[in-house]
Design goal:
The structure holds two protein chains of two kinds. By secondary structure, chain A is of the alpha+beta class. Chain A contains ten helices and nine strands. Chain B is flat. Classes of the chains: A alpha+beta, B alpha+beta.
C-alpha cells in the first residue's frame, strides 16, 4: 500500500491558478496596476480599454490583467485539445517601454519556474495588427522550445493614432504556457487547482458556446444588435464635439467604446455563423474600425490630449 | 624627415562597428549586411578615403557588424589656388600695393610676400595658395558611421521611444565603435558608442570589453556568438550531414531553410527529435509542411524518399544536456501533427465538391467576385482549351476531366487544412480528390494547377493539369486587366507576371497548339457570360496579348538563351502561336551560323531602309514587270526570288523552317550582285518603281519566318 503511494508521482508544474498568481505577483512588483478582466466580450486583451485607450496620450502607465478572450470561430465543441472558443490571456502594458524590457520580460518566465539557460528561447519576427481597432505594432512571437508563448509588441498606433510614447504590450497565452509547465497534451487535462482540472471548470462552456455560435445563434437578431450598437456608439462619439466646459469631463466616451466592443464581438458571431460574404466582411470591419478610431480620438481629446502632451514634454 | 612623413601617410587604420539590437528579423539580415557595406564604401569614397580599404560586414539576430581595414589615417591635404583682384587694381603706377592688394592678403590670412601673380585669359590677377588640411579618419568616421546606420533601409521600420525618436527595424540597445583600439565617440538613436558588447542572450557572461575585430570575434565566440553567418551555416550543414550519416537517412534538402536558420541563431546546433510513426499515414507533403512551415525543422527521408518519423531542429544553444529542449520541440510538433491529422479527417467528412458553395465567401477580387465565380470561368476556359486541342488532333485531351478538375480546383481554399497551411493550396485539393476516388488525372491536375510558380518550377505533369493551370491563369490576367489591375513596376499584387510566365512556360514546354489571342478571347467571353459578367474591350485584349508576348520574350531569352535580336526578329512577324514561334527561332538560330546568312540579313536591312526612304505607298507598289528590267542582275534576282519563293512556301507548309531559311540564304549571291550592279533609285520612274516592287516582294515573301532586318541590331528591350 505504502509502496503504491510512493509510486504516485507528485504532479509537476504550476496549476493554472498559481500561474496567474505568479504572473500577477511578478508584474505588480514591476510597478503594474493589477487590473481585472474587462466585463464586455473581447477577442483579445488588447481590446480592454486598459490597453486600447491607455496607450494613447503621454501619461506613463503600467498595468497587468487576465483577459478571457472569445473567438467564436475558433470553438471546437471542447473536442480539440488545443483550440478554444475562449482562451485566457495575461496582458501587460508598459508605458513607456523601458530599455531593458526584454530582460524584464524574460525574468517573468524565470518567475514561473522556467530555467532560461536550459531552454531554447527566441524572439521571432511577428508584427501584430488589428484591422478592426486601427491598431498595429512591431515585434515578435516569443518561442520556448518551438512553442509560441507570448506576443511581444512595440505598439505603434492605436485607434489610428500614432503613439507617443511607445508602449510595449506583452500577451501571454496562459493555457499553452501551463500545458508546457505541466507537460499535458490536452488543455482540458490542465490542473486548474490542486483538485480541479481545466475541463471541470470550462468544458461545458466550450461545448455550449461552440454549439451556439456555429448552429444556434440567431443571425438576424445579431445583425440587428450590431446595427443598434453601432448607432449608439456613433451617436455618443458624435455628440462629444458639441459638448462644452465641465460636461466634457463626464461625457460618455467610455460607454461609446463599449458599444464598439459589442459590435466587434457581434461581428465575430456573424462570422462564425457563416452569414457574412467576403465583400461585406471587409465593409463591416471598416465600420467597426471607424467608430473605434473616433472613440480613440475623442478619448484623447477628453483626457486633455494635445494640451497635456505639451505640458508633459515641457 | 620625408621618409617619416611618408610612413605616417602610409599608416593604416582598423575600425570595428557593431550595432547591437533587439532581435532583427532573420530574413532581413543578408540584405542589411550588404547595404551596410555599400553605405560605408560610398560614404568613404565621398571623403576620398576608400582607397585600399576592405569593408566586411556580418550579422546575427542581435547585431550588425562591420570590420574596416586599410583605412588611411587622414585625408590628403588639398591645395587650392584663390584668385583676387586684377594686377592693375592691386598695384599703383609705381608698383606699390594698393588697398585692394592688402585686403586680399589679409582675407587669405597670408603676408603679402606669399601673394603672387597669375596669368589668365582675362589678364593678370593676384593669387594665393590655400591648403585645406585633410581631416583625420577619426573625425570622418564620427560623421559617417551614424550615417551608414541611419541610411539602412528596412521594409517596415519602427520607433521605440516616440514620434520624434529614431526609426530602425528593432530597438538599438548598444553600439560598439573602435578605431585602432580606441573607442570612437558618437551617438545614434540615443545610444552612445563605446567598446562594450554583449554575447549570447543566455550564454554570454555579461558585458565584454573589446579592442578590435579579431578580439571581438574571439570574445564573442567564447560567449556563445559566431559572428560570421557563413561559419554558422557551414556548422549547421556539417551537423545535419553527420546526423544523416549516423541514422542512415537523408535530409530533405532545403537551401532556403538552411540559410534562414543560419541567420536565426547566434549559436546554432542541431537537435534530433522523433514523432509518432502513426502520423506517417498523413501525406508526405503535409508532414514536411508542418515541420518546415511553422517549426523550421528539416524533414528526414528514408532511402526511397518517403518521410521518416524524425526531424532535425536547429536551436540557439550548443547542447541540450537534459533533453528538455528536445522534449519541448517534440511536444509542439505532436500538437501540430495532431492538428493536421484532425484537419485531414474533419475536412474529409464531406466531399471536395461540397466545399463549392463555401467558395462564395472567399473573395478573389472585389470586382471579379468570389472564388466560386472564378471556378465557373476557369471551367469554361478549360473546356474551350481541351476542345481546341482535341479538334487539332490531341486525342487524349479530355473535356470532361478538365471540366471536373477545374470545378474542384479551388475547393481546398475552404478547407481547414489550407486555411492553416496556405502554402499547400492545390496540393491538399489534389490529395483529397485522390483519397475520395476522383480519377488520377483529375487529382493530379488539381494538385498541380498552381504550377509553374517560377521560371524553374515544373509545369503540371498531365494535359488536364495544363488545361486547368492555363485556364486559371488566363482568367486571372484577363480579369485583372479588365478591371484595371495592370502590374506596374514592383507592384503586382495578383502576381500576374508570374501567371503570364506560367502560361508561356506551359504552352512552350508542353508544345500546345494555343492561339494566344483566341484563348484571351475565350477568357474574355467567360468573364462576360459568367459573373461578374464583365466585358473586356478590344484594347484590353490587345494589352493582354502584349503582356503575354513580353513574358514569352523573357522566357525565350532567359531560359532558352536566344538572343534579343533573334527573339525580336521572330516576334516581329507574329508569335500568336508560341510553339510555332519557337520552332522558327530554333531554325533561325541554326541558320545564323551559316556563312551566307548574316550578310543576307544586312541586305534585308538595306532593303527595308530603301523602301522606307522611297516613301513608296502600298497602293503605288505595282506588279513586277520583267520587261522593265535593264540589267542581267535584276533578271537574275527576279528569277531566283520566284523559284525560291515557291520552295520556301513548300518547306514552310511542312514546318521545315530551317530548310526554308536555307533556301532564303541561297539568295545571297543574287542579292549581292543586284546591289553591286543596279542602282535602285533610277531616274526613270517606271524602272525605279519596278525595282522597288521587286524589293517589296523579297521582303514580303521572305520575312514570314522572321524579320531579318532585326538581326544584329542593338539589343532592344
Amino acid at each position: 500500500m505504502t509502496a503504491k503511494v510512493k509510486l504516485e508521482k507528485k504532479p509537476a508544474g504550476l496549476t493554472f491558478q498559481d500561474l496567474i498568481l505568479k504572473f500577477s505577483h511578478y508584474w505588480v512588483k514591476q510597478g503594474c496596476i493589477l487590473q481585472q478582466p474587462y466585463d464586455v466580450e473581447v477577442g483579445a486583451g488588447t481590446m480592454h480599454p486598459e490597453t486600447f485607450l491607455r496607450v494613447l496620450g503621454p501619461q506613463p502607465y503600467r498595468v497587468a490583467y487576465v483577459q478571457p478572450s472569445r473567438r467564436p470561430a475558433d470553438g471546437r465543441y471542447g473536442e480539440n485539445p488545443n483550440r478554444l472558443y475562449k482562451h485566457t490571456q495575461f496582458q501587460v502594458i508598459l508605458k513607456p517601454s523601458p530599455a531593458d524590457v526584454q530582460d524584464v520580460y524574460l525574468q517573468s518566465l524565470a518567475a514561473i519556474g522556467i530555467v532560461l539557460k536550459e531552454h531554447d528561447i527566441r524572439f521571432e519576427e511577428d508584427n501584430w495588427e488589428s484591422p478592426t481597432l486601427g491598431a498595429w505594432g512591431i515585434g515578435w512571437q516569443v518561442l520556448l522550445d518551438g512553442l509560441e508563448i507570448t506576443q511581444f509588441t512595440y505598439f505603434q498606433q492605436s485607434g489610428g493614432i500614432d503613439l507617443d510614447p511607445i508602449s510595449v504590450e506583452l500577451t501571454y497565452g496562459l493555457e499553452r504556457i501551463c500545458a508546457f509547465l505541466q507537460d499535458v497534451e490536452s488543455v482540458y487535462d490542465l490542473r486548474w487547482s490542486a483538485d480541479k482540472k481545466y475541463g471541470d471548470i470550462r468544458l461545458a462552456e466550450e461545448q455550449q458556446f461552440s454549439e451556439y455560435s456555429f448552429n444556434r445563434s440567431d443571425a438576424k437578431a445579431i445583425r440587428e444588435e450590431f446595427e443598434l450598437h453601432e448607432k449608439q456608439a456613433k451617436e455618443l462619439v458624435g455628440g462629444f464635439a458639441a459638448t462644452k466646459g465641465k460636461d466634457r469631463e463626464r461625457y460618455p466616451i467610455l460607454p461609446a467604446y463599449d458599444h464598439c466592443l459589442k459590435c466587434s464581438h457581434l461581428f465575430n458571431l456573424m462570422d462564425a455563423r457563416g452569414v457574412i460574404s467576403t465583400t461585406e466582411r471587409a465593409a463591416l470591419m471598416a465600420r467597426v474600425r471607424t467608430v473605434a478610431c473616433q472613440a480613440a480620438a475623442a478619448y484623447l481629446e477628453q483626457i486633455g490630449g494635445p494640451a497635456l502632451r505639451r505640458e508633459v514634454r515641457g | 624627415m620625408s621618409a617619416a612623413k611618408e610612413k605616417m601617410i602610409e599608416k593604416r587604420v582598423e575600425v570595428l562597428l557593431e550595432v547591437g539590437c533587439e532581435e532583427i528579423p532573420a530574413g532581413m539580415l543578408p540584405k542589411a549586411e550588404e547595404e551596410l557595406r555599400a553605405n560605408l564604401q560610398k560614404l568613404l569614397a565621398a571623403e576620398n578615403l576608400s582607397d585600399g580599404v576592405t569593408v566586411e560586414t556580418f550579422s546575427a539576430p542581435r547585431r550588425l557588424v562591420a570590420s574596416l581595414r586599410g583605412l588611411r589615417e587622414k585625408q590628403a591635404d588639398v591645395v587650392n589656388e584663390v584668385t583676387g583682384p586684377p594686377k592693375t587694381v592691386a598695384y599703383d603706377a609705381v608698383g606699390e600695393p594698393t588697398r585692394a592688394a592688402l585686403s586680399f592678403a589679409e582675407k587669405q590670412g597670408l603676408p603679402l610676400k606669399d601673394i603672387y601673380i597669375v596669368k589668365t585669359p582675362k589678364g593678370e590677377y593676384l593669387a594665393a595658395k590655400q591648403t585645406k588640411r585633410g581631416r583625420t579618419a577619426e573625425q570622418i568616421l564620427q560623421e559617417i558611421l551614424p550615417r551608414a546606420i541611419h541610411d539602412l533601409s528596412w521594409p517596415r521600420s519602427m520607433t521605440w521611444t516616440g514620434i520624434d525618436g529614431a526609426r530602425f527595424i528593432r530597438p538599438i540597445r548598444w553600439l560598439v565603435a573602435i578605431v585602432n583600439g580606441k573607442p570612437l565617440k558618437f551617438s545614434f538613436a540615443g545610444v552612445t558608442a563605446g567598446d562594450i558588447t554583449l554575447g549570447h542572450r543566455f550564454l554570454g557572461k555579461g558585458p565584454l570589453r573589446v579592442k578590435n575585430f579579431a578580439d571581438y570575434e574571439k570574445k564573442l565566440a567564447a560567449n556563445g556568438v559566431m559572428v560570421r553567418p557563413a561559419n554558422r551555416q557551414e556548422g549547421i550543414s556539417k551537423e545535419l550531414a553527420a546526423h544523416a550519416k549516423r541514422s542512415g537517412y537523408r535530409i530533405h534538402e532545403d537551401a532556403e531553410l538552411l540559410k534562414l536558420v543560419a541567420y536565426l541563431n547566434e549559436c546554432p546546433s542541431v537537435l534530433e527529435g522523433n514523432f509518432d510513426p502513426a502520423y506517417l499515414a498523413l501525406p508526405d507533403e503535409i508532414l514536411i509542411t508542418v515541420m518546415r512551415g511553422h517549426q523550421k525543422y528539416f524533414a528526414v527521408e528514408k532511402r526511397g524518399g518517403e518521410v521518416a518519423p524524425h526531424f532535425l531542429a536547429v536551436i540557439n544553444l550548443p547542447k541540450d544536456p537534459k533533453g528538455l529542449v528536445r522534449a519541448g520541440h517534440e511536444r509542439v510538433l505532436r500538437a501540430r501533427l495532431a492538428d493536421a491529422q484532425f484537419f485531414w479527417e474533419s475536412d474529409q467528412k464531406c466531399r471536395l465538391a461540397d466545399y463549392l458553395p463555401k467558395l462564395e465567401r472567399v473573395t478573389y477580387e472585389s470586382r471579379l467576385g468570389s472564388y466560386r465565380d472564378k471556378v465557373e470561368r476557369v471551367r469554361a476556359i478549360a473546356r474551350w482549351l481541351t476542345e481546341q486541342w482535341f479538334n487539332s488532333g490531341i486525342l487524349h485531351a479530355h473535356v470532361a476531366e478538365a471540366d471536373r478538375a477545374a470545378e474542384l480546383s479551388k475547393c481546398d481554399l475552404a478547407t481547414e487544412m489550407v486555411r492553416e497551411f496556405t502554402e499547400l493550396q492545390g496540393i491538399v485539393g489534389g490529395l483529397y480528390a485522390r483519397a475520395q476516388g476522383e480519377p488520377d488525372d483529375v487529382a493530379d491536375a488539381i494538385y498541380d494547377h498552381y504550377r509553374p510558380v517560377g521560371l524553374d518550377d515544373p509545369i503540371p505533369r498531365n494535359l488536364t493539369g495544363c488545361a486547368v493551370a492555363l485556364a486559371d491563369k488566363l482568367d486571372s490576367v484577363v480579369g485583372c486587366f479588365a478591371v484595371g489591375l495592370v502590374p506596374t513596376g514592383s507592384s503586382d499584387p495578383y502576381a500576374l507576371r508570374r501567371a503570364a510566365l506560367g502560361i508561356v512556360k506551359i504552352i512552350l514546354e508542353r508544345k500546345l497548339p494555343v492561339s494566344l489571342s483566341l484563348s484571351i478571347g475565350a477568357a474574355a467571353k467567360a468573364l462576360l457570360t459568367n459573373p461578374p459578367k464583365k466585358g473586356v474591350t478590344p484594347a484590353q485584349e490587345t494589352q493582354v496579348v502584349e503582356f503575354l508576348l513580353d513574358r514569352a520574350k523573357f522566357v525565350l531569352r532567359e531560359r532558352e538563351k536566344f538572343g534579343y535580336d533573334e527573339v525580336n526578329a521572330v516576334f516581329r512577324v507574329g508569335a500568336d502561336d508560341l510553339v510555332d514561334a519557337h520552332k522558327r527561332l530554333v531554325a533561325l538560330k541554326a541558320i545564323r551560323k551559316s556563312k551566307n546568312f548574316e550578310p543576307l540579313a544586312v541586305s534585308f536591312k538595306r532593303i527595308r531602309n530603301i523602301l522606307e526612304k522611297s516613301n513608296l505607298k502600298k497602293e503605288e507598289s505595282q506588279a513586277i514587270q520583267p520587261d522593265l528590267f535593264e540589267s542581267p542582275a535584276e533578271r537574275e534576282l527576279f528569277s531566283a526570288v520566284r523559284s525560291a519563293a515557291a520552295r520556301v512556301q513548300t518547306e514552310k507548309r511542312a514546318g521545315k523552317y530551317q530548310e526554308a531559311l536555307e533556301v532564303i540564304a541561297g539568295l545571297r549571291k543574287a542579292v549581292d550582285e543586284f546591289f553591286e550592279q543596279v542602282m535602285v533609285m533610277a531616274e526613270n520612274e517606271a524602272v525605279r518603281k519596278n525595282r522597288l516592287a521587286l524589293l517589296s516582294e523579297i521582303l514580303r515573301e521572305f520575312t514570314t519566318i522572321a524579320d531579318f532586318s532585326e538581326l544584329g541590331g542593338e539589343e532592344r528591350r
